């Protein structure tokens, strides 16, 4: 095996392994609740019926239905990031009026990321989401707790769009979660685990070719 071949193999091995993993938390950009009883009312602007410190996710009968929407900005992720996993985290808030009772709460990816927390309503957004990504079931108790959903099963192009929206919705009964406008400690966030090459691929290719050309020139001068 000549020197050129050895160098080529070493460079390829180096760049194929020259990557690192990153774990990052991204805070929610905006969030809002939507209510079927008041389909044209923005809940953030209306004070949310005395519950403006929380986001309701409930379905108590055929007329009362609350869903919540969460928007995230992923522009801080490097363009060459390869996502390993995404976890959606939010803080469950207990109250005597709205409490979970062993009912599933679903999360789904929104079909559009263009919405405003201060104008969105039930009629402008209800049902505008894809298939369920994950489901959690909670017991009824008085303990506030952080809850996580695995939302990794979405397409790579969704990450590259830089904005992501998620819907939380439930079957009969429900509860409430921390709202972005009130207490920062309660706000939802994404935990993203991704890999990124230490040297971008174009640079790796350029270095590879440069190394080969340099060795070739050296051998030519030597001969």
From TrEMBL:
Residue stretches spanning the membrane: 199-220
Compartments, as annotated in UniProt: Secreted
Any one of the GO CC terms: extracellular region
Keywords: Membrane, Secreted, Signal, Transmembrane, Transmembrane helix
Any Pfam family matching the protein: CBM96
Domain Carbohydrate-binding module family: 32-172
InterPro entries (alphabetical): CBM96
Name of the molecule in the record: Carbohydrate-binding module family 96 domain-containing protein
